[in-house]
Amino acid sequence: MKKISIIIPAYNEEESLPMLRDRIEKLMDSMKNYEFEILFVNDGSKDRTIEIIKKMREEDTRFNYVDFSRNFGKEIAMIAGLDYATGDCVIFMDADLQDPPELIPELVKYWEQGYDDVQEVKSEEYDDVYAKRRSRKGETWLKKFTSKMYYKVLQKTTRIEIQKDTGDFRLLDRRCVNALKKLRESERNTKSMFSWIGYKKKEVLYDRDPRIAGTTKWNYIKLIDLAIDGITSFTTSPLRLSTYIAIPTFLVLFVYFIYVIVKCFVIKQAIQAFQAIILLILFFSGVQILLFGIVGEYLGRIFNETKNRPLYLVNEYNGEKEMNEEKG
Ligand code: UDP
Ligand code: MG
Questions:
Q1: DSSP 314
Q2: What is the pLDDT, as a whole number, of residue 9?
Q3: For the whole model, what pTM was predicted?
Q4: Is the per-residue pLDDT at 326 higher than 80?
Q5: Minimum CA distance residue for ligand 1 atom 22
Q6: What is the pLDDT of residues 211-240, one digit of tens each?
Q7: Which terminus of the chain is more solvent-facing, meaning fewer CB atoms within 10 Å of its CB: N or C?
Q8: Pocket of ligand 1 (CB under 6 A)
Q9: DSSP letter string over 116-179?
């Protein structure tokens, strides 16, 4: 029997938990041929969240929990979940029921049989079945708009394919879990990591529900932080900006230099003071920006190095040794 771990980061979710429990129990009843592990990561909640979870565990040992010493943020809660999950696959879900548990059988279906709905035949298994939002109920147009623009910018800055309108609600095969566990950087942007690890991905459309109870833990400052983290952890292309500015500066310098020299020789007119000043300004600002760019290039490499990511992940190996580690 395969085991499914459902990881649920929870921060001040006492109001959502009873309803969440109902829905999850229904789900578990409907999927009798799987073993379940519900793993709550209590992210330093200030309300009764952990007491409620502990009580749930007393009544049903399929409920598990990791309790943080303080609030570390959802991204860290997610990696802790991966570290503690024991299932053959894991599913990330929010505690506020914005991710409907009823979609889980479909995610599992694709993971198990890789059902291909275009050709309506069994294809290969999928490693990463992610739920893509068809609609976003209960969210303001501003949030929708900013999120759309953000994905656009993010995709422009990287060659890794980014999944649009996709949250953290997804099913990951054990080998994706093991891959993600290798990415131990502290400034985490899990969404970019899902893209980075690759493997066979499959999208499933769903309607995102409004929050069932309580209020969102996000505000715009936090969202902007997340957005900047996303871009800066994905790419170092902002650091390249000065190189891009230096090139046109030198071009202008060059053209103006030729113009002044030619004028000097053809019209036999001495170089004027303002021309010399403009040339000097162009030259030195060009040099400065270029040097910044060079520093940026090296900084970018150091930055990527310090993240300590594995250089590549092996999808398949013709022998035994590596595969065992990959499959964990
Ligand atoms: N969450 C968390 N730590 C935090 C903030 C949020 O573990 O510091 C959890 C929260 O309990 C919920 C999920 O992350 O299960 C998503 O949070 P929320 O619903 O507030 O975000 P939104 O859906 O509005 O993006
Ligand atoms: Mg939510």
A1: -
A2: 95
A3: 0.72
A4: no
A5: 216
A6: 777 777 777 777 777 777 777 777 777 777
A7: N
A8: 9-11, 13, 43, 71, 73-74, 77, 94-96, 98, 211, 216-218
A9: ETTTTEE----SEEEEEEEEETT--HHHHHHHHHHHHHHHHT-SS---TTEEEEEEEEHHHHHH
